[in-house]
Structures are given as structure tokens and as C-alpha cells.
Amino acid sequence: MTANIEQAQSPRWEPAEVANVLDRTLTEGGKHFTQIVEESSVLLVFLRHAGCTFCREAISDIARSRNEIEGTGTRILLVHMGDRAGIQQLVERHGLSDVDRICDSSQELYRAFGLNTGTWRQLFGPKVWIRGLVAGVVRGHGFSRPSADATQMPGVFLVDRGLIARAYRHDSAADRPCYESICKEGR
Predict the structure, then answer these.
(1) Cα–Cα distance between 159 and 146 in angstroms, integer?
(2) Where do the DSSP E strands lie in the chain?
(3) Mean pLDDT by groups of 10 residues along the chain of 187 residues
(4) DSSP 50
(5) What's the CATH code of the domain at 114?
(6) How many separate domains does the chain show?
(7) Looking at the domain assignment, is residue 10 inside a domain?
(8) For residues 150-174, b (16+ Cβ closer than 10 Å) or e, as one string?
(9) Three-state SS for 124?
């Protein structure tokens, strides 16, 4: 797992636009995003799509690290792009069905956090193919057709007291962040 954690960069949108997106964002359970991030530290995990082997691996990694993550007082919040059934299946398989999720089919939240579409290298470069074979075949996460925007890059943010404390923006779709390190660093 990689751990190239960076301090968050400001989004490319104007602050008022970002605030507007955050204020109207609800979880699938009807909770306001802004309320959740004000209540506790939140590990905000932006996924790709349910067919992506790296998304499947990420959910597996989060499930495996859940106790350590939550032991830091951090709540997990997953963001996906609209394949509710596919994501639901993945979180159920890994015991995360009680974790809050946000469906962001318009990808406004992705943009608000500065996550862009990937380049050819980030999506199809040699690292992606090699790691894809390892994650998909060797580790058994499998492959499937894209169920949402396959060009969207993922990312992970630690939001503490309503502010972005740390950010991990994937350099490639194949990056494998250490989720518990993102929560523990600096505590």
C-alpha cells in the first residue's frame, strides 16, 4: 500500500460554489454531508465504479482496516457515482453495509474536492495493467464492465472539524492508499 499523503489543495471552484455543493449533499440515508463532517472526523473515500477491480480492492481494504480507522474516532463515508446496486453488493459482501454512502452521479462532489478525470497513463498505463492483474486475478477482486464514469479518478480525504486535514489524490487508478495511516498521521 502506498502512503503519499499530501496536505489538501484548495478546490478549483470558488468557495461559495463548493459550500453550495456541500450544503445540498445528502447521504443515501438522508443525512446532510455538512452535519456529518461537523460531528466527527470523517474518512471521505471517493470510489470509481463497482466494476473497477481497484474499487473492489479499496472496499476490501477499508473493511479490513475498519477497526483501526474507527479506533481513531474517524467515521467512514463512501462516495460513488451512481451504481447503487453494485456498490451495495460490494459493501454487503465486506460487512460495510452500515457505512454511510453518498451517490454523486453528477460528480459535483468529486470536482469540489479537486478530483479530475484520469489521463491515459493514469487509467491504462503499465502500472495499472500489472496491478489490475494482481488485484483482479491473484487477489480475487475480479473485473467487470464500468457501471459509471470509468475515467473518474478516486481520492481519499480526512475531514476533521469540517476542514480537510489530509488528502490522498491517486496518481493512477492502481494506487492503493493506506487508509489507517491517513487517519493516524499527525494524531
Answers:
(1) 29
(2) 41-46, 74-80, 100-103, 155-160, 163-169
(3) 41 60 87 87 90 86 95 94 85 94 91 86 71 59 63 90 86 87 74
(4) T
(5) 3.40.30.10
(6) 1
(7) no
(8) bebbbbbbbbbeeebbbbbbbebbb
(9) helix
The predicted structure's pLDDT at residue 62? 96
R_g of the chain computed on alpha carbons: 15
Q: Which three cell numbers stand for residue 81?
A: 457515482
| Straight-line distance from the first to the last Cα atom of the chain, in angstroms, rounded to the nearest whole number | 20
Q: Quote the domain boundaries for residue 179.
A: 15-184
Q: Return contacts of 87-91, CB within 8 angstroms, 24+ apart.
A: 87/47, 87/50, 89/50, 90/50, 90/55, 90/56, 90/59, 91/59
Alpha-carbon distance of 152 to 136, in angstroms, equals: 19
Is the pTM here over 0.85, yes or no?
A: no
